[in-house]
Every structure is written in structure tokens, then in C-alpha cells.
Prior knowledge:
This protein has 8 helices and 8 strands; from the N terminus they run αααββαβαββααβαββ. It is α+β, with helices and mostly antiparallel strands. It folds into 2 domains: about 5-70, Orthogonal Bundle (Arc Repressor Mutant, subunit A), CATH 1.10.10; about 85-225, Chorismate lyase-like (Chorismate lyase, 3-Layer(aba) Sandwich), CATH 3.40.1410.10. The protein has a 6-stranded antiparallel sheet.
Amino acid sequence: MQKRTPIYIQIHNQLHEMIHDGYWKVGDRIPSERDLAIRFDVSRMTVRQAVQTLVEEGILERRVGAGTFVSAEKVQEKMSTFQSFTEIISQQGQKPSSKVVSYHVKPASNSEAEKLHLEENAEVLQMERIRYADGTPICLEVASIPYHMVSSLSKKQVTQSLYHTLETEKGISLERAEQTISATLASERVAELLDMKRGEAILRLRQVSYSKDNTPFEYVRTQYAGERFEFYVEGSGDKKR
Length: 241
């Protein structure tokens, strides 16, 4: 039986389409949560969830004291290396760990379907985790995976060692990953989960992971506590400036 698309995803998709169609352009301020709740005849909490998802995807951005705006296209620098959170933390001599905040199957949003090359009404497994280094919360990670790829796997297999399990059980191995990093501010929920203050600096990473046959198998949105984490990429000096 097809799962009914949650209301907040329906609103997310409608807002996403309105932005894509130019109803709101880059730099435009979208209506307040109160006005959107009236427009869609839903609660403000439902609207907040839809808007926050678009913020996490980099489509919208919040500005303290000003409202929520359509994000401008960012200048991008291609990163030449990829390491998992576990590898990064272990190399720093610290102990990595994680806590699962949510784990459920749901219809893919427009953004998830686009990133993962899924058909309309396809389902994804969405996993939300807090990642720690020596017990200190470093980031909040939201990963979406095509459900048909992991439907036969246990929750433990997916949450503890997804890449290893996909390779050994499904023959799916990570070949490359596209990563985008930008800056934002901690929402009330993210601040609470990461033991921060609302409005503190966040490093936001969005990543799509691909297998050897160029099939996307994971779409991750990660928010790092700005004061506890930094990215370091080593490159050669053979590029012209």
C-alpha cells in the first residue's frame, strides 16, 4: 500500500516548485510562517518543518531578525578528497560515536527524488543522527537512502556501518561523492541537539554519494557546530589563478 505523503513534505514540494518556477526569486523574502500556515490551512509547526527542510537543503536561508529568503547561488570550490566522519574523528585520536534521533521510511520529497534520481512516489529511508567525538556532539546528520536498496537490511546494519554493509551485502561501494559546504545559523532544534545556542555558527554540508555505476545511493545534509569542526582540503599548486 502506498504511503500517504506527509503534509509537511507536500508543502515543501509546493514551496520548492514555486521557487523553481520563479514565483519567488533569489533574494526574495518568503511569507512568514503565520502567513504560510494560513495560505496552506495547516499549523505553523507543519509550515516550520517544511521551511526548515528547505533551509537544510540550501534552498532557503534564515536571517536573524529579517526573515527567510531564497538563497543565492554560491561560488563553489571542488573538494578533492572524501573521508567519512568516523575516519576523520579516528585520525584525530578521538573516539567517534553516534545517536539515532529518528529512523523511518517515507515518500521522497522533490529534493530527495531529484538528488537520488528516483521516480515519483518512490520511498526513502531517512535516518537522523547526532555524531560525537569523545562524547561531544559535533554534527547533526540527516541521510536519505532509496528504500529499495536497504529494505532487506536491519536498522543496526544501516545505522552502524552503512557503507560496509552496502558493499558486503549489496555489492554497492562508494566511488565518488559530490559535496557542497556553506554557512548558516543554528535553529532552535539544532542548537538543542548539539548543545549550542540558537543563532550560533553552523557549517552545513550537503553530499550525494555515488556507486561505481554512477548511481546515487545516499543524500546527506549535515550541520556541524562551527566552533568544534573545520574542513581541511589539501590541493596541488598546478591550477592557474
